[in-house]
Write a structure and sequence with these properties.
33% of the residues lie in helices and 27% in strands. It has 571 residues and is α+β, with helices and mostly antiparallel strands. It has a 20-stranded antiparallel beta sheet, with helices on both faces.
Length: 571
């Protein structure tokens, strides 16, 4: 009977070995899968960020990533005017000449065969004068001016290493090699103007700077993990706007950029913009090309050290259903009372604020003898909108207003829906009395579409303004051209139903805390616009309409989707 026993034992041993083998294989597969998932997630993490975010120093003022896909740049050339195309080409040529042509390189021949899908340019803040200079053999002193970093991801390592090892001969000066933290740096020496410096990081990125000191700062940031990816809120918020094959992506370090912009002799950003951005940490966006224009997905987030938090109050999105389809411009939001409180908080001690809260309060008081916060803002907690609605000119009267400026405010608590109409009506009646006694306006009550309205008629007999109530406890005030019949009753064809609005204003994020729409062609044709940005007129001349939808993502960040429908070049 022994042989059978031995045979069973062998079978059992083989079975156990098989179980152990399969279990071991399963364990290895599981560990390998987990490791692959872990490392691939790390790659996805960086892929969802700005290209080179793990290399660019954290104090970068501005960074922009541009696609290397020539087809996208060719497609972009289909939009705009000849003037805007010339300006775009000039900017690209200047950038190309600075880093490539002036040093003997051609993008299509020398760079494109090995470079990745995007290249990133970053502007670094001036280095602190008190910061110790790294120990290295550099002729250049520590720079106190802004410097530039270019990060080129490598998709063909052999070709990239060849061009790095055998750089083009300089017309003046020479290339020298040196070692910093174990990394070979090539830098130009004896060349007039800026001295370029380049380094390979782990064979995956070629970094080019306009200053050898900046190359060292970049290597330090990469090795010590003090790069852009480590900036508070960057890694959490940038993936929110990631897109497949974007034309461009950008990031602005708001606190640092605002400080430098505020001290510049010719400040490029208006004070109003700077004042509103002071408490933010970052502003980032992704630009993609679509058949009818450009889409920008943006996100802004607060400084992690800021005590300020955002109220997640995304309850807008109905006002476009109250104005007619021919509306030229509309901006909607929610809770003026809260917006005012935030403005009071952020404008205290801020020299860039366009107007102080005290000036606003005293201005309302002197003009109306009423209290801004008690008489007005106390009931302005619901959705609010301002709109420009064209009027209907009367034959033979060239003095008619071309359009009306319309303010709509929902008199309710945005949190619990409580109606504040009675409080609003008391304030509005008091304002009627002020217009009558202080400014000698005629106050005439009438009805439109069965609803009572009040007209303010100036001493010269011209209808100046009309106010009343729409459905849903929404008060309105229209100043300028008489357009009450266009909003009472509710228009049969609303702005929300118009094709232009639907094609322009993004549907996401949803729910929303505000939207913006502008028919740029009609606005610029009929009304003068204040100059807010450089080259504004040129940019507006290429744009048909602009739409934006925003939402508070959480108590620290805000999302924006913007779409610009653009004119196409006349072939």
């Amino acid at each position: 009977m022994k042989p059978p026993i031995l045979s069973a034992s062998k079978k059992k041993s083989k079975k156990s070995s098989l179980v152990l083998t399969l279990s071991g294989a399963g364990l290895l597969i599981g560990v390998g899968s987990a490791a692959y998932w872990f490392f691939s997630q790390g790659q996805l993490f960086y892929r969802d960020l700005l290209t080179g975010a793990n290399i660019i120093p954290s104090d970068a003022l501005f960074a922009v990533s541009l696609t290397t896909d020539t087809k996208q740049w060719q497609k972009l050339q289909e939009f705009g005017t000849k003037e805007t195309q010339a300006q775009l080409n000039q900017s690209l040529v200047q950038l190309r000449d600075r880093f490539l042509t002036n040093n003997g390189y051609n993008f299509e021949k020398d760079i494109q065969p090995w470079v990745g899908d995007e290249v990133t340019l970053a502007i670094l803040a001036p280095q602190n004068k008190s910061a110790p200079k790294p120990v290295s053999n550099i002729e250049n002193p520590v720079s106190n001016s802004q410097s530039m970093v270019m990060v080129l991801p490598v998709k063909n390592s052999e070709k990239a290493k060849t061009i790095f090892a055998q750089p083009k001969t300089l017309t003046q000066g020479k290339w020298i090699d040196r070692i910093y933290q174990g990394i070979t740096i090539k830098q130009s020496q004896g060349q007039p103007g800026e001295n370029l410096s380049a380094a390979f990081l782990d064979g995956r990125f070629l970094v080019i700077t306009d200053n050898p000191q900046t190359t060292e700062r970049t290597i330090d940031a990469y090795k010590s993990r003090t790069s852009l990816a480590s900036v508070g809120g960057f890694a959490d918020n940038f993936p929110k706007i990631a897109s497949y094959q974007p034309l461009a992506q950008f990031y602005i370090n708001v606190p640092n950029a605002a400080k430098i912009a505020a001290t510049a002799p010719n400040r490029r950003l208006p004070a109003q913009v700077l004042a509103q951005l002071q408490n933010n940490q970052g502003l980032a966006g992704t630009v993609t090309l679509e058949p009818e224009g450009l889409r920008i997905k943006g996100v802004s987030w607060l400084n992690p050290n800021s005590q300020r938090v955002l109220a997640v109050e995304n309850k807008a999105g109905t006002m476009q259903n109250r104005v007619p389809a021919e509306t030229l411009m509309m901006l909607s939001g929610v809770n003026l009372q809260r917006l005012w409180s935030e403005y009071v908080l952020t404008s205290q001690g801020n020299p860039l604020s366009p107007i102080t809260p005290e000036q606003m309060r005293s201005g309302v008081k002197s003009l109306t003898s009423m209290d801004l916060e008690q008489d007005f803002l106390s009931w302005m907690k619901g959705e609010v909108a301002v709109a420009v609605i064209p009027g209907t000119p009367k034959a033979g009267n060239s003095q008619d207003f071309r359009a009306a400026f319309v303010l709509m405010i929902q008199a309710s608590d945005a949190n619990d829906g409580q109606s504040l109409r009675q409080l609003a009506e008391t304030s509005i009646k008091q304002l009627d009395e002020v217009m009558k006694t202080q400014y000698q306006f005629q106050i005439k009550s009438t009805t439109v579409a069965g609803k009572p309205v009040v007209n303010w008629i100036s001493p010269f007999g011209t209808l100046t303004a009309t106010h009343g109530w729409l459905d849903g406890d929404v008060a309105f005030l229209a100043i300028g051209s008489p357009i009450t019949e266009k909003i009472l009753p509710k228009p049969s064809t609303t702005l929300a139903n118009s094709l232009t609005f639907q094609q322009t204003v993004p549907t996401e994020p949803n729910p929303t805390n505000g939207q913006f729409y502008m028919d740029v062609e009609q606005i610029t044709k009929n009304f003068p616009l204040p100059r807010l940005i450089p080259q504004q007129q040129t940019l507006l001349a290429t744009t048909r309409s602009i739409g934006m939808t925003s939402a508070i993502s959480d108590n620290r960040s805000t999302r924006y989707d913007i779409f610009l429908t653009l004119k196409k070049v006349d072939k």
